[in-house]
Amino acid sequence: MNKALKRLYLFIIFLFLYAPVATLIVFSFNSSKSRANWGGFTFRWYSELFHDKQIMNSLYYTLAIALLSSLIATIAGTAAAVAIHNMKKTIRSFVMNVTYLPVLNPDIVTGISLMILFIFIRLDLGFLTLLLAHIAFNIPYVILSVLPKLKQLNKHMYEAALDLGCEPVKAFFKVILPEIMPGIITGFLLAFTLSLDDFIISFFTTGSGVSTLSITVYSMARRGINPKINALSTLMFIAVLGLLLVINKRSSANNKNETARIGNLI
Amino acid sequence: MKKPWLSYPYILWMTIFIIVPLVLVLYYSLTVKVDGTVVFSLDNFAKVMQPIYLKVLWRSVVLAVASTVICLVLGYPVAMILSGRDLSRKNTLVMLFVIPMWMNFLLRTYAWMTLLDRKGVINLLLGSIGLPQANILYTDWAVILGMVYNFLPFMVLPIFSVLSKIDRSLIEAAEDLGSNSFKVFIRIIFPLSLPGVVSGITMVFMPAVTTFIISKLLGGSQYTLIGNLIEDQFMRVYDWNFGSALSIIMMLMILASMALMSRYDKEEAGGGLI
Amino acid sequence: MENSSKRVLSILTVLILLAVTLTGCTGNEGGAAGKTVTINVFNWGDYIGESTIRDFEDKYPGIKVNYENFSTNEDMYVKIKTGGSAYDVAIPSDYMIKRMLDEGLLNKIDMNNIPNYKFIDQRFKNLSFDPGNEYSVPYMWGTVGILYNKTMVDDTIDSWEVLWDKKYSKQILMPDSERDSIGVTLKMLGYSMNTKNVAELEAARDKLIEQKPLVLAYVVDEVKDMMIGESAAMAVVWSGDAYYCMSENENLEYVIPKEGTNYWFDSMIIPSTSKHQKEAELFIDFMCDPEVAFANADYIGYATPHSEAMKLLDPELTSDRNAYPLMEDLVNCEIFEYPGDEVNKQYNRIWTEVKAD
Fold first, then answer.
1. Long-range pairs, B53-62, Cβ under 8 A, ≥24
2. What ipTM describes this predicted complex?
3. In chain B, positions 115-134, which contact chain C (CB-CB < 8 Å)?
């Protein structure tokens, strides 16, 4: 392929990817509510956005759920990965197959099955059920990120630590944990972003008074075009851009998280 | 470290949050309520097989396949260009490609509502250069567009990662032996990239066939997909039994196609032509 | 190596502490101390005055309102029926109130706690779905009709049949709500909106499937935005939404077709899941305060059953017989009734089949 042609093709694809985002950003400054004409530059939608109780609440819940669920899932998932790593082969393959289920299953099936569970055990749908659901779908991703690191681990190091008189717990924290830390961090970031972006599972497992940003956007979008969503999109875009730049600086491998996820899937 | 009790908490968790919920879905799908008592029945599955619901299933598959094919056709060249060597600032470009994907899924879909509306930006642009208006919002095309837009990165990234790992010397050797670039592509690059293609297809097909948001927001609730049908049974009709049967069918469909894909992947990974 | 893992551990600890304090905040918001009570109010989208909730919270500082929307009666029913969430006040329509009453999903309202109930016009008491006025307090009422854009439609619109006119292909918006869409089709065919005859329902289904290619979209709350933005020529809408749209776009006009239509009553009820009966009654009473009811009706555009509020409204509106029809205008019209579980399943099936086709 000719270089100019390649550039042109890439340009068109990037146009396709960015045109919608760019439109939202431009229209977030449009003082007219209609998207057909330009009514002048304004910050009005931004100030309305920050005064919108519903949006601010859902932003808070989104962050709280994402942070809490990914942290708990990271700790629990790491412990589970260590446990799975030490299982007998037959049990291990059974446990791994079950662990894969939420990853392979369509989100809508995971969502409704958890909803049925919560209603079955008479748990009021709300913050707790939402958190549990997010932890439940995050743990497998953490396990899948940590396990490969455990497999690469040099067994003898841990044994050497024990031989040198180290207690098992201490040996774990001093020898094993640092080695598998990259996997744990990948798992945490993966869990955090998945939780942040989730709509379907939250939609089915949340109850009155607790809604995530995705759910709020969904109910707003179903009511028509809303300039406040444009302002929100702009801020989200800037946040994502900033976050990615930081992560990218830290380690260039991290922007392939999704690739890692994909790699793990198959 | 061989301490079996270490694994008990996770096995318990897994049982409660993975196995039990799915067993409950299965239970609902295999029962119906008759005069307040629950009885075992295959009626729900029989209902899924009614022509009208098979049509929904068929439509979901057709739309998902169409989006997957479009993603592959559009995405493969992108992955190739991005993995190419002759590109300056490659990392930046890859990152630029990923950014929109990190935006909230709902916001991305909402953006297309703004663009495609009859009074939206696209028609505004078309009108200003004197072209006829395109009214594609609330059609199948809008749904496919929404799927392609949302899932394109899922196609590009796995292919990109496989292509990036291809040993350059293989290609150079083929070129030295007189293969033209088309032949190199057909005989070397494409076969080697197949695992990525297979992952890409699965990654796009799965969310596309199960979505209910894209069809609701961009399809104007006109084109019921299986995802919509399931959502409807749980959130409007209150027929959890039928909804569960639909979920089980969908789950089996997905798991079967995954198994099929991974087998295909293994067979093909050894090399050879398409 | 040791250092880096310690650093990560300390970062994790900080994050956990942060997360715990974050959730701690919500705990307090929920009023664990017993000083503030949060009531969950469940209402249709865009169906309350701009500042009504705030005014209520100002008047009763001990009560916080968590306000949520649904878009159809059926959506609301499922949320309350499954019992995953405890709502304290909901505002369903007539037939759904009957259904919920039959299924034991409603609490009795102590009318002694609703002194403002006396302002509700006699016409709206003792309705068929709540003959003893024990379970519901009227909120708004209205009709279903066709909202159309005069610049996009040249015919005179007086019949539901225009919704099947090929001339308006991809210009028609239908409600994504089973009783409403099936109802107007039944009326068009000359049947009752409350038919229990499966053959009539199936005839309506075939008609709706025939109409599908002409329909731009099935919508609920989006309809206002789309009609005001002139994205479609006509829509089947509830009267209040029509009046709201007409105030925003002067090209729009609302008619009640000659075949007759559905007239409906939305009433406030207390679901049996409620944990705050007293506060819920305070809320209902507040909504019936003449000033509040006036501001509410004035803002959302629906017809109020409140006699005092009606006096305060613009006489031009209250004398408009499309907005405030008199009983003699409603000869062909029907109130939706709950047809019973078996027939209701048929309605569900018909609508699912229309959407699935």
1. B53/B229, B53/B246, B53/C356, B55/C356, B55/C357, B56/B224, B56/B225, B56/B226, B56/B229, B56/C356, B57/B226, B57/B249, B59/B223, B59/B224, B59/B225, B60/B209, B60/B210, B60/B225, B60/B226, B60/B227, B61/B209
2. 0.88
3. 117-119
